[in-house]
Amino acid sequence: MSSNARPESKKRKEIAVRFSKSHTTTFPTAHTTVRLACCLLIGSLALAPTAFAGLTQTVSDLVPRLAAVNVRERYAPEMELQRMVLQASRPGAEAERVALEKVLDAKVSDPAVPEPARVWILRQLEYIGAANSVPALTALLHNSDAEVRECARRALEKDSAPEAVESLREALAAGGDTRWTIGLIQSLGQRRDAQSVDLIARKIADPKIAFAACSALAKITSPAAIDHLWSALESGTAPAADALIAAADNLLKARQSARAAAIYSKLYKDPSSAGVRSAALVGLANAAPDQSEELIAEALSTTEPRLQIAAITAARKVYGSGASAVLAPLFSQLNDSGQMAVLRVLEAPAEEHIIAAAGESDEPVQLTAIARLSRVGTGKAVPVLLRLAAGQRSPVQKAAIQALGRIHGTGADAAIAEMAAHGESAIRVPAIRALAQRSDTAAIPALLYYAGNSAPEVASASWSALGVLGGDTELAPVARRALETADPDAESALREIATRVQDKPAASKELVALLPDAAPKQSSVVFGTLAVLGGPMALKTVSEAVSSGDADVKQAAVRALANWPDFEAAKPLLAIASDSRQTPLARILAIQGVGRLIKSSADVPVEGRLEAALAAMKQATRVDEKRLLLSAFASLRSAKAAQPIEACFTDPDLRNEAGMAGITLARSLFWSDRAAARRLLRAVADARISDQITRRAQAFLARRRR
Amino acid sequence: MMKTPPLSRRQFLKSTAILGAALGRPAIVPSTVFGATAPNNRIQVGLIGMGLMMSSHHHFCLARSDVQIQAVCDVDRTKRERAKALTERVYAQKAGFGSYKGCDAYNEYERVLARDDIDAVFVITPDHWHAMITIAAIRAGKDVYVQKPMTLVPREGRMVSDLAKQYSTVLQVGSQQRSDHAFRKACEIVRNGWIGKVHTIYTELGTFAPPQTLPGEPIPDGFDYDRWLGPTPWYPYNYQRVKGDFGGGWRDYWDYGSRKNGDWGAHHFDIIQWALGMDDSGPIEFIPRGWDGAPYQSHVYADGARVWKNHPVKHGQMIQFIGEEGEVLVSRGERFETTPAELKDKPLAPNDIHLYESSSQEGNWLDCIRSRRQTICPAEVGHRSATICQLNGIIERINRPVRWDPVAEQIVGDEYASRWLDRPRRTPYVL
After folding, report:
1. Looking at chain B, which terminus has fewer C-beta neighbours within 10 angstroms, N or C?
2. Domain boundary among B120, B152, B177
3. Is the pLDDT reported for residue A361 higher than 90?
């Protein structure tokens, strides 16, 4: 096709310009692609006999390729033809479509066209076939090749011309085997051909055809079709009931509500299938709301959950936003599944029913009620939710806690705040937790007050809530209270807040300012929080405190440094590790801190970390720290890290860890320094540390050789 | 309160053990609670389509003490017999018996649906069979878990959705990213407007190799090829055409699926629908790649938000939402980033939109069967997401844009493109 491309027409250029100026796609009648040019060419030529001949030739050239002996070679011409068809089917290109349709009609009618080509062309007529195609397709309904017949049937089914239906009807009348009959019935149903009803109905008695026949009659929906379906139902034809539902649905879509309602109403009375009754009730609510009101209450009072759900669907349709008011009075008369179904649609005005159900002993009903309160509950629901949240650990308790975090009706915020402030501790605790769950930052001042409560559970819950809610503003006041009370919960809250602080230098400054007034034993509160914040000022303060004359202050500072978040702490830690005046514990903590920082500071250049690791290794005296540092060496992607690892291959306490560290390091080196990686792996293998380590090193070497 | 008379096993299942309606966890009443005639409280399931995708569902069911696999079904005898053997072996081990014989294997799904002792079915076939089996299951009174995309063409989806609602079926579509915490959180951020009005969404679906026209091969013994093809046009059998393969196989062919549109698209387009609050609607325009020089295929919502398919996504993530005030990027494996960064950990306030929570797509379905509550991905949601996959597939083939009316569910002003909204079915397979 591309060889037929011609320069773009003026109109096409105008369209392209318009498109390039707009982000919103418009829908012109022509393509802006290269293929468009081909289509326009076909279109313009389609009106001329010579052009038609050209198109015929193009398709004729494709035919032998569509039937190529090498089946795989058929794909390209198949797609070529399909592209032609789809382009010709675009809006505004009717002349092109007709021209191509005629060519394809001629080809499918030509007995010289081989079957694979004919089948493919027939499938294209599904997409573009119209009135012109009917004669050719009709003739093929009688073809000796079953596949050709079947393709012709499907193409006629999709063919928009009324004559196509006549052909299908005549073919059904002419008879055929079961498979063929089912196909034709399906097509006629799809086309909703009322004139075929009697022909189709005659086939209902055949169990193999009954489903297709009922399905087709359900689509046709003429009075005669419906009558046949009722007869089929009465005679026990299994698919008839579902087909009648489908028929009523189709009638409803066609705005024949009264006829649809009559079917739904009659089917609802049939007790044989809960599914059909359910569908009938929902359908009736759509077709005739006034007729379904009584049935909604009746269906809800049954013990069939499917029908109860249908009643809710129907009630929503019939009563809209008023469903809650209608269903609420029925609530107490229903069984559990009915109550649960109703609970899901009750709105705030029916809250008393929901609250009562939340207090029920039946757990599934309780859970449904609690979930509903979380959506529509008001302040009135808060006491019951708090009572449940204060109860034993259970699904109900969990649901109540969750609901307290979400309930947002009128007065809910105030009720929770009120119950957090007063009353028995068992209720105050979940109320305080709810304040945190609800991100209620307005409660922070109150929480600071509650944190001083004499009831330890109230104080603990308040600190916990402050840890969740607090930010930059709360850091200093919480720190002051933590220093005053020496409460571990307060210290936890302080550190929690520090993780979220935005202005870390300012926060550090505020904390450092508290140090002069803090008791030495309390300095860990400040130092530990500074270790969360990090930064130069915090580091300087804590580093200096290492030299304090007070043992408590000193130890707190060392512990804070050992937990420091960034690599800047490595230097003071190494100083501690190498200072013989420090306690053994301080030196151990310092080495551990260095080891941790080396592994966690991937953004720091490897040379600096390697240097720190070597220095720490020099100071390490215990096996535990040496092992930690071996894993730190293994995390450094540097060939220089191999040497300290290899040095431990002969140490009986460290050789296993050294061997594993060697393999880990070799793996990470492999893509940057393959020679070093291989050398290290060979060293590990040669060290004969253990069978397992040797095997792993050798296996890795062998794999990488491949 | 009026209390119920003795119930049948199925009624019991649906009306009593309903814990989890609010918490998303099943409630299993110990069997010791019941007397000798008490109904079994397990959900009895049938598995239809024992191929690649069923494997995880099969193992999920085997691991659940509240689920009993009563039947397996596949048109491939080897697959169904293997599944039956595995099921019986596991149940024998669990029960401490030497053997167990209680799982039947069928070639025809109709035989699974005809059994009164089966409450629910998994429909995990290739896409071209989804609608037909699902509709039959709905009408047979079964609850349904159907793999995504729910159907092959939009008209089938509308039918499934309407019927599921009418018949009060608990239907779950297997778009399991909805049960992934990171995707839900990403959607909540978008839905609550934390990144402002969303104008652009990028998502990568990947590509399949073009389909091939393949020569016929002998049909393997025990493989019901006619039934495998079902309502689709006849082609000679070739293993490459029918095999289950995440990288191709039947997924390559438009007759059986929507290629990548229905593969990853059914996941990512679904999440985008959820995030934009369009679960009962959809885009209004679909524009193919190359149209007006567009480097990627896209579809556009009425508010102007445009989804670019296969546009590279930052940091190799799966979906990127770009709003006027920020971005959200999200992928499987809890990969989740936001701009501003703090949005990621911002808790929802009581008045914010809280989306449906589920941590397991299959588990949520089972809970909902017990409670009769709506699933996280019911038929209407599955249909709307599948429609986007299908319309993307249509424009990919017809190579022109279509304007879509998501209310009437019609292609506007393009008669012949509209023909693609449904398909004629090969006899004797009737919808």
Report:
1. N
2. B177
3. no
A586 DSSP 8-state letter: H
Residue B351 has pLDDT above 70, yes or no: yes
Contacts of A3 (CB under 8 A, 6+ apart): none
Residues contacting residue B106 through CB under 8 Å, at least 6 positions apart: B71, B72, B73, B80, B112
Q: What is the ipTM of this complex?
A: 0.90
From B27, B349, B428, residue closest to A179, measured CB to CB = B428
CB contact residues (below 8 A), chain A span 617-646, against chain B: none
Is B371 part of a structural domain of the chain?
no
Shared domain for B50 and B98, answered yes or no, is yes
**pLDDT value of position A693:** 95
Q: pLDDT of A113-159, one tens digit each?
A: 999 999 999 999 999 999 999 999 999 999 999 999 999 999 999 99
**What pLDDT, on a 0 to 100 scale, did the predictor assign at position A588?**
95
- Whether A303 sits inside 8 A of B15 (CB atoms) is yes
Chosen domain end from B111, B146, B177: B177
Q: Chain B partners of A127 at a C-beta cutoff of 8 Å?
A: 416, 419-420
Residues 6 or more apart whose Cβ sits within 8 Å of residue A494: A467, A475, A478, A479, A482, A525, A529
Q: How far apart are CA A558 and CA A583, in angstroms?
A: 11
Residue A49's pLDDT band, with cuts at 50, 70 and 90, is low
- Tens digits of per-residue pLDDT, B132-145? 999 999 999 999 99
Residue B300 binned pLDDT confidence (cut-offs 50, 70, 90): very high
- Tell me, yes or no, whether B255 and B386 share the same domain: yes
**What is the model's pLDDT at position A37?**
42
Q: Is the pLDDT of residue A110 over 80?
A: yes
Residues in CB range of A270: below 8 A, 6 or more apart = A241, A276, A277
Q: What is the pLDDT of residue A360?
A: 78
The answer to whether B2 contacts A78, with C-beta atoms less than 8 Å apart, is: no
Based on the fold, state whether residues B165 and B196 are members of the same structural domain. Answer: no
Contact A305 B426 (CB under 8 A): no
Contacts of B428 in chain A (CB under 8 A): 178-179, 182-183, 208, 212
Residues in A touching B16 (Cβ below 8 Å): 336-337, 364
Q: Decide if A157 touches B, using CB distance below 8 A.
A: yes
Instruction: Please judge whether B212 and A340 are an interchain contact, meaning their C-beta atoms are less than 8 angstroms apart.
Output: no
Residue in chain B nearest A374 by alpha carbon: B350
Q: Is the dihedral of CA B270, B274, B279, B284 positive or negative?
A: negative
Is B365 a domain residue? no
Q: For residue range A485-529, what is the model confidence (pLDDT) as tens digits?
A: 889 999 999 999 999 999 999 999 999 999 998 898 889 999 999
Do the chains contact at B212 and A75, CB–CB below 8 Å? yes
Asked if B325 and B185 sit in the same domain, the reply is yes
Which one, of B200, A382, A96, lies nearest residue A104 by Cα? A96
Could you say which residues from 215 to 244 on chain A have a Cβ atom under 8 Å away from some Cβ of chain B?
A: 215, 242
Residue B337: CATH number of its domain:
3.30.360.10
Which residues does A406 contact at the CB level (< 8 Å), separation at least 6?
A374, A375, B350, B354
How distant is the Cα of A278 from the closest Cα of chain B, in angstroms?
5
